[in-house]
Amino acid sequence: VISVHLNKQITHLLYSAHYVLNDNFENYPKGDRFHQVFEVLLGDGIFNVDGWKWERQRKIASYMFSQSYLK
């Protein structure tokens, strides 16, 4: 058993998730500790980075979910 102690919050409420992920994303960084713990599994992928690395990967991924791409 590995104890990580990430001090993170979890929500199941749709409006809270929308607020964190869309409206106020910059105020909820994953942080260095999260990145360090999950680096072996997630590397520097979109689910494990913050800042400009996240913005770049998010922009690239958004093209894959556009309506014209999914047709």
- Fraction in helix: 55-70%
User: Which structural class matches the secondary elements?
Assistant: mainly alpha
Would you count the extended β strands for me?
0
Computed Rg: 14 Å
Task: Quote the average pLDDT.
Answer: 82
Order of helices and strands: HHHH
Question: Into which percentage range does the β-strand content fall?
Answer: under 5%
Please report the distance between the alpha carbons of the first and last residues: 45 Å
The number of helical runs is 4
Shape: globular
Largest sheet: none
What ranges have pLDDT less than 50 throughout 5 or more consecutive residues? none
Describe this structure in words.
The chain is mainly α. It has 4 helices and no strands. The radius of gyration is 14 Å and the shape is globular. The mean pLDDT is 82.
Question: What distinguishing features does this structure have?
Answer:
mainly alpha, 71 residues, 56% helix
Write the layout of secondary structure elements.
Blueprint: H1 14-23, H2 31-42, H3 51-64, H4 67-70
Brief write-up:
By secondary structure, the chain is mainly alpha-helical. 56% of the residues lie in helices and 0% in strands. The chain has helices at residues 14-23, 31-42, 51-64, 67-70.
